[in-house]
Amino acid sequence: MAGVLFLCAAAVVVLLLAAGGAVPPPPPPEEAARMARFVLHNCDWGALATLSAQEGLRGHPFANIFSLSDGPPEPFSGSGVPYLYLTDMEISVKDLEINSNASLTVSLAQTPYCKKHGYDPQNPLCAHIIFCGSIVKVKDSEVGLAKKALFSRHPEMENWPKDHNWFFAKFNITNIWVLDYFGGLKIVTPEEYYSVKP
Prior knowledge:
By secondary structure, the protein is an alpha+beta fold.
């Protein structure tokens, strides 16, 4: 009977998280790599900055919001890979066709965590992560993972217009900065990042 109750309780936690409910407590500040994984996994979107290729803005930074996912919303899971669903018709994707380098910022401000604790989005205790790297189309062998990751969190994507030629992409991480406490940014290597669980 105790086992059944535990399974029911675990199912409720998963459903709450999937519905945008409570976020489990973040890792301690001294575990920067885990914090980076934790924040990404608990965020559904991020600000992607590209170098603009648009007339009048060429070469200037251009930030835009994109839905993302590193895996289905179950707690303490996720691949750490930020997947995106893109179309060549999108203005930032046109920038990426010229220069695939970008930065991606995700913040716990989009979850209930910071409001619950009274943290302003700019407060370091409302952790945010800055990734630098490039956007690449996923290989055929990875499409299933990307699709499951994105459609489990963003179900309306499945019904977006087919004539927009959507494709799955990922953020290829080369540098990671973590701001989750006072005293400045912490640098995490991709190797450290992928070697831990959120």
